[in-house]
Amino acid sequence: MKERANILRQIETDQNFRELNQTLDQRFPIWASSDSFFRYYNRYFRCHWHPEIEFSVITEGECIYEAGDRVYELKKGDGIFINQNVLHMAEMKGKLECRFGVVRAEAFFLGGSTESLIYRKFMEPVINNPEISCVPFYGDIPWQKRLMRQLAELIRIYEERPEGFELMMTSGFSLLWLEFVKALGEEKGNAVSINKDAERIRKGISYIQRNYTKKITLKDIAEICQSCQSECCRMFRNVVKESPIEYVNTYRIRRSLILIEEGTYSMTEIAQKTGFSGSSYFTEVFKKKMGCTPSKYKGSKEIYKRVKNNHCIKN
Fold first, then answer.
1. Beta strands 99-105 and 70-75, pairing class
2. How buried is 13 (Cβ within 10 angstroms: 0-12 exposed, 13-18 middle, 19+ buried)?
């Protein structure tokens, strides 16, 4: 299949990597969608988490999915379950389009509240289990293949919205979840331990975002993460795909975009206000991350609009 034009969307997150793109309607807290990696900048989902549980199925092509401390190569017919509050990311594999479907729901969706019998008996044992951060599914395993078919049907119902689709979604998700939890009881080996690295570096990320205007060293970040410097680097690369200092520079560049947009300060002043040691180093890092100099970025409406609307910061 030929490649299509990239629409340059991106997963937006807050300072703690919580996703901001999708908010569920609490009156009916389930959402489903079909999508394509071609619609995302660099065909990549940046590191993020959300408080809802999520099932994904690959409907075309291949992708690489990272969740917990594992990396999975998923192809057409495969899928994955992501538990609530688990950091994860994904990218397309190869040049052929990778399409996928997603069903996301609040954990209390089936029972109506966290006090219900359904929630306590069927949901809570899974979502609060630290050994179940994610579970991959493969199309050549019978029960997992059935699960992926059920998932695809839920996505179809949600997108077409026939009369009574709310009841159809509720009953369909109930059957999907029942098969899932029964199989988990039989195949616990598929569950992946929660990524403790992610929990530790959240402290480091928070520290960076509070102190980016000051001098920050690897030693400072490692101390906040309660690790040695080499372990700190390993954790950051494992979770956010950047070293701690690379992440510091990425965050400083993001903050510099706001000041450039304001148009109040010179580039030298912006470099100082965002923690860079000098304007030349600021320009060097900016060009590496953004693909152009700060001055060209400021002067070109086309580049400015593209980056502002789509958060196109290079890794």
1. unpaired
2. middle
For 48-67, letters b (16+ CB in 10 Å) and e give bbbebbbbbbbbebbbbbbb
SS3 of 78, please? coil
CA 235 – CA 197 distance, rounded (Å): 6
Could you read off the pLDDT of 100-154 as tens digits, one per residue? 999 999 999 998 888 999 998 899 888 887 678 889 999 888 889 999 999 999 9
The enclosing H or E element of 102 equals: strand 99-105
**pLDDT at res. 315:** 45
- Using one digit for the tens of pLDDT, what is the confidence trace for 126-136? 888 767 888 99
Cβ–Cβ under 8 Å, residues 144 and 187:
no
Spatial contact of 154 and 109, defined as CB atoms under 8 Å apart: no
Contact 67, 82 (CB under 8 A): yes
Domains of the chain with bracketed CATH = 30-190 (2.60.120.280), 196-310 (1.10.10.60)
